[in-house]
Automatic annotation (TrEMBL):
One of its GO terms (biological process) is defense response. It holds the Pfam family LRR_13. Residues 881-1039 form the C-JID domain. The lineage of its organism: Eukaryota, Viridiplantae, Streptophyta, Embryophyta, Tracheophyta. InterPro entries: Apaf_helical, C-JID, Disease_R_plants, Leu-rich_rpt_3, LRR_dom_sf, NB-ARC, P-loop_NTPase, RPS4B/Roq1-like_LRR. It is an enzyme of class 3 (hydrolase). It comes from the Eukaryota. Its EC number is 3.2.2.6. Residues 637-813 form the Disease resistance protein RPS4B/Roq1-like leucine-rich repeats domain. It catalyses: NAD(+) + H2O = ADP-D-ribose + nicotinamide + H(+). Keywords: Leucine-rich repeat, NAD, Plant defense, Repeat. This is ADP-ribosyl cyclase/cyclic ADP-ribose hydrolase.
Length: 1054
């Protein structure tokens, strides 16, 4: 409502009109009523014209106008028989009265004109609000302020449905599943949610289930009645277009649909526009979309054409109906479209005459939602296909050719991907309407027939047609061809001249591995892909490609020179030679280039002429093993944002940055031979991410490195020779061999992610706490690290895997206090990984007096008792440490992976505000393994009631992850301590279930927990080489008021 009020701007001394537009049932009237009541006191006279469309349908529009004018004029005796009579009188009266008028549900322009005839000039300050499903009503009345109704989000939808169906705000587990099914149909439509919810209220479980199951198949009569009026207002052609979209083209690209429908209808473009204006369809990311209820309404219209005999309908989309029609050969001449997902049917053999009766079929699509093997067989071929076809898509078409009696003169798009065709047809065909031809992955295709008649062909896709040897010479005469994709046509040796194909803008020849000559193409070409070809030389004629924007010649292993003519390509923006190992010199190219990729080439030097590339944004020189020199002129690249130099193993010096480079955001110098960085690095004032991984020769960083105030991510993994450090710097110490550092660390104020893995440090400096935005600290394999100082309160993730000397982590205690008690710091989760930190294993460490993690974990849970009742700032805590026993203070412990507990009395008698949370713990035994990407622990909880009812909850924790594929191992047993604020279904919003359980907790007296460890390999497969040896559950309630609260015991310190 606030947005509408802000648009109408009550109080401004002008006349303003506002339109509220949306599909039926979205709450336009409700919103208009709310706004009307909210602002009406500020006007001299107000009137709400309700149900204008319905009034006209029942012949009451004149009466409505009379009532409206009488109220506005405050004259009960006013009687104006026709709109033209009294126009001057009305104009004079209304020009002196500030009024508020709402016209609800206006469906066409004539209604608005009738109601407002003679009163088009209102007093300054007046406001008119119009609600409609038809946007043109607003546009044609010059109402330029239009508020488009939005559907309810998931939370709002669920709450509204539960209020109507269950008279509560939140569902139980069973009701949640039921709610999801209903809401998937309603899709945020408020009226549908109310109607569906009310129909279920007070009904038995079996009735509810059967009703919900019916919703997706049979439209609710009240909803159908509401929506069908929009359909009935369409003309015949618009109705057909709407039904085509509902039954065939929903979700497809708008331009693609328009192109096909233009061959079927007089004005497809304006028809689609009108459907959009009437809120029957909408466009999302250039795809035609439609509310599920409107699609269901469209389906119902088609089904009513022949309720009992699908074969007599105009459109078929239900797999079983199509299967029956095809197998019985009963398709009728009324059929216009057929959409079949072959994944949903069993194998089907068609008779040759299967399509003979379907003379009016325009759209035919056989596709697979999963898999590619065709389930439709043609053991005896086909006699014909309908000549009226505009769109033919048959994935995996099983025959060698199309039927000889098929005349594709009306065909606009042909898609035979994954087909078995060897050639489409014999001889010459009339293809005057064909615009798109797709034969991707037709691996038996040998020949493309004559295309000289395909004068309107725009796109041709022949990806992975591995037996295709040549293309027809007629291709060069296709003046409208814009895109030709021949990727992976591995037996294609040469192309016909494409010089005359003047509309061709994109030519893709990637991985045509025996194509050795450069194609002759039109000067209008904009994109040329030659990746993976065997081209050895690029002819000087390339300079004629004056419109070329992108040229990619990656992995051209035989390419041994590049002509100087390349510099004449003034339009070239993206040029790539990655993986072309014979390129030894830096190419001279146009100054308009924005992206240059030379990774994996044999260049030895980046020349000073690079300064001419003033528009360059991306420069990739990665894996140039011979590169030794990068010119200092690189600092003149003022547009440069991304610079890759990783794995240039001979690069020892990074160039001086003699001037500021404000736009450079990303710099990767990993794996280079750098020994030091120049102090001029401070001129990279916009640098956000710097990678220096495995720079084993790097001995020092510049003293002024801390001046990189924009730096957010810094990684120095494996810089084992870094021996000296500048003042005012902490965040560049990964892999350092220093034993201790004492520095003032007030620099690098933007740093969020710091990777110091592989360091030889024994201690981190205490001033690390001064990094105010640090969220992630990675210390993996810091074998000599002994202790952690106080850490910044912003830290969320600490990974100290394999820090085998680490023995002091008490600072984590204060970090947790800060997270819980500091009100102004938002937290999503806290994660501390100490895997393979064997000095922290209480049992393994002998002669110790102070329990290291036992006390720490206990303190954390004490804080949680006070914390969990508040609105969650932290929804998850994960810790991992070597250990073989569940902490002693856990309420319930058990051997194995499951535990059954009796819920304590607090479960019954505490208020819902004191609803308990569960802290769980597991001991997991790991066998030796390698290659694991991540470890997850899933916990299932079943609450049991006295009468036998159960309520299932679950929670999943990502407890460990590897960042680089390798041989990382977790040795021995490990203890995991896990906490989640909302311990509930992963599929649900946590608060819904928690609040429901809180209000019904007296029902449950027993809980069963089961833990499932899951290891995920880098290839995505699952690894089962671990088991849960012990598990524990600790129930946390809020402390009684009499007890000392943690918030009173600890003070937050920054």
């Amino acid at each position: 409502m606030e947005q509408v009020i802000s648009l109408i701007q009550v109080g401004f001394p002008d006349v303003r009109r506002l339109g509220i537009w949306g599909m039926g049932g979205t709450g336009k009237t409700t919103l208009a009523e709310a706004v009307f009541h909210h602002i009406s006191n500020g006007f001299q006279s107000c009137y709400f014209l309700a149900n204008v469309r319905e009034s006209e349908e029942h012949g009451r529009l004149f009466q409505l106008r009379q009532e409206f004018l009488s109220t506005i004029m405050e004259d009960g005796n006013l009687n104006i028989s026709t709109p033209t009579i009294g126009a001057g009188f009305l104009k004079d009266r209304l020009s002196r009265k500030m009024v508020l008028i709402v016209c609800d549900d206006v469906s066409n322009l004539s209604q608005f004109e009738f109601l407002f005839k003679g009163i088009n000039q209102l007093c300054p300050g007046s406001r008119v609000i119009v609600t409609t499903r038809n946007k043109q009503v607003l546009i044609q009345n010059d109402i330029d302020r239009i508020y488009e109704m939005e559907k309810l989000d998931e939370g709002e939808s669920l709450q509204l449905f539960c209020q109507r169906a269950f008279k509560s705000n939140y569902p139980t587990r069973y009701r949640l599943e039921l709610s999801k099914m209903v809401l998937s149909v309603a899709d945020g439509n408020p009226l549908a949610i109310k109607v569906f919810g009310s129909s279920l209220y007070g009904k038995e479980k079996t009735y509810q289930e059967s009703t919900v199951k019916k919703l997706k198949q049979v439209p609710n009569p009240d909803i159908h009645k509401l929506l069908i009026c929009s359909f009935d207002a369409l003309d015949c052609e618009e109705k057909d277009i709407f039904l085509d979209i509902a039954c065939f083209f929903k979700g497809e690209n708008r331009d693609y649909v328009t192109r096909i429908m233009d061959a079927c209808y007089v004005s497809a473009h304006s028809g689609i526009e009108n459907l959009i204006d009437r809120s029957l369809i909408y466009v999302s990311q250039n795809q035609l979309a439609m509310h599920d209820l409107l699609q269901q309404m469209g389906w119902n219209v088609v089904c009513k054409e022949s309720p009992l005999e699908p074969k007599r309908r105009s459109r078929l989309w239900i797999s079983n109906d199509i299967y029956d029609v095809l197998i019985e050969n009963t398709g009728a001449k009324t059929l216009k479209s057929m959409l079949l997902d072959m994944s949903r049917i069993s194998e089907l053999e068609l008779k040759p005459e299967a399509f003979v009766k379907m003379r009016k079929l325009k759209f035919l699509k056989f596709y697979h939602s999963c898999g590619t093997n065709s389930k439709i067989l043609l053991p005896h071929g086909l006699l014909s296909l309908p000549d009226e076809l505009r769109y033919l898509c048959w994935e995996g078409y099983p025959s060698k050719t199309l039927p000889t009696k098929f005349h594709p003169r009306n065909l606009v798009e042909l898609d035979m991907s994954f087909s078995h065709v060897e050639k489409l047809w014999e001889g010459k065909q009339d293809l005057v309407n064909l615009k798109v031809m797709t034969l991707n992955h037709s691996e038996n295709l040998v020949k493309i027939a004559d295309l000289s008649s395909a004068t309107n062909l725009e796109t041709m896709n022949l990806v992975n047609c591995t037996k295709l040897l040549e293309l027809p010479s007629s291709l060069q005469h296709l003046e409208k061809l814009t895109r030709l994709n021949l990727r992976m046509c591995k037996n294609l040796r040469f192309l016909p001249s494409l010089y005359k194909a003047t509309s061709l803008t994109t030519l893709i020849l990637s991985d045509c591995s025996i194509l050795f000559s450069f194609p002759e193409v039109s000067s209008n070409l904009r994109e040329l892909h030659l990746e993976g070809t065997t081209i050895e030389q690029v002819p000087s004629s390339m300079e004629s490609l004056s419109q070329l924007v992108l040229l990619s010649m990656e992995d051209c292993v035989r390419l041994n020179n590049f002509p100087t003519a390349i510099c004449s390509l003034r339009s070239l923006e993206v040029f790539s030679l990655n993986g072309s190992p014979n390129i030894t010199t830096f190419p001279e190219i146009s100054g308009n280039i924005t992206e240059l990729n030379l990774g994996g080439t044999a260049i030895e030097e980046v020349p000073s002429s690079i300064e001419c590339l003033s528009n360059l944004r991306v420069l990739n020189l990665s894996c140039c093993r011979r590169l030794k020199i990068v010119s200092t002129s690189v600092h003149k690249l003022k547009s440069l944002k991304t610079f890759y130099l990783h794995d240039c193993s001979r690069l020892e010096i990074f160039p001086e940055i003699l001037d500021t480079m404000e736009r450079l955001r990303f710099l990767d110098l990993s794996g280079t031979a750098l020994k030091e960085l120049s102090s001029s690095m401070e001129n990279l004032i916009g640098l956000v991410e710097l990678r220096l991984n495995n720079c084993e020769n790097l001995a020092c960083l510049p003293d002024n490195f801390y001046k990189l105030k924009s730096l957010k991510f810094l990684s120095l993994y494996g810089c084992s020779n870094l021996v000296t450090w500048p003042d005012n710097l902490f965040s560049a110490i990964g892999g350092a061999s220093l034993t201790e550092m004492q520095r003032d660390l007030h620099g690098l104020s933007s740093l969020e992610n710091l990777d110091l893995s592989g360091s030889n440090l024994e201690n981190l400096p205490t001033s690390i706490k001064q990094l105010p935005r640090l969220k992630q600290l990675i210390l993996r394999k810091c074998k000599r690290l002994k202790s952690l100082p106080e850490l910044p309160p912003s830290l969320k993730h600490l990974d100290a895997h394999d820090c085998t000397s680490l023995e002091e982590v008490s600072s984590i205690k204060k970090l947790f206090e800060q997270a819980v008690l500091c009100k102004d710091r938002p937290y999503g989760f806290l994660e501390w990984i100490f895997s393979n930190c064997f000095q922290l294993d209480q049992k393994a460490v002998r002669n110790t007096r102070t329990p290291k993690l036992q006390m720490l974990f206990g303190h954390m849970v004490t804080l949680l008792k006070d914390y969990h009742q508040e609105f969650p700032k932290i929804n998850m805590v994960i810790t991992c440490v070597p250990g073989s026993e569940i902490p002693e203070w856990f309420d319930f412990k058990s051997s194995g992976s499951s535990i059954n507990i009796q819920l304590p009395s607090e479960w019954y008698y505490n208020s819902s505000k004191n609803f308990p949370t569960f802290v769980v713990s597991t001991v997991v035994s790991f066998q030796e393994y390698s290659g694991v990407r991540e470890i997850r622990i899933r916990c299932k909880c079943r609450l049991k009631s006295r009468n036998g009812d159960c309520h299932d909850l679950s929670c999943s924790f990502l407890t460990w992850r590897e960042r680089i594929p390798g041989s990382e191992l977790i040795g021995s047993d490990h203890l995991f301590l896990l906490y989640k604020t909302c311990f509930c279904d992963d599929d649900a919003e946590g608060g819904w279930l928690v609040e429901t359980l809180a209000s019904n907790k007296g029902m449950y007296n027993e809980a069963w927990f089961k833990f499932y460890p899951l290891l995920i390999n880098w290839d995505g497969s699952e690894n089962i080489c671990c088991e849960v040896k012990h598990c524990g559950v600790h129930i946390s309630f809020a402390k009684e008021e009499a007890e000392v609260q943690p918030s009173k015991r600890f003070k937050y310190q920054s």
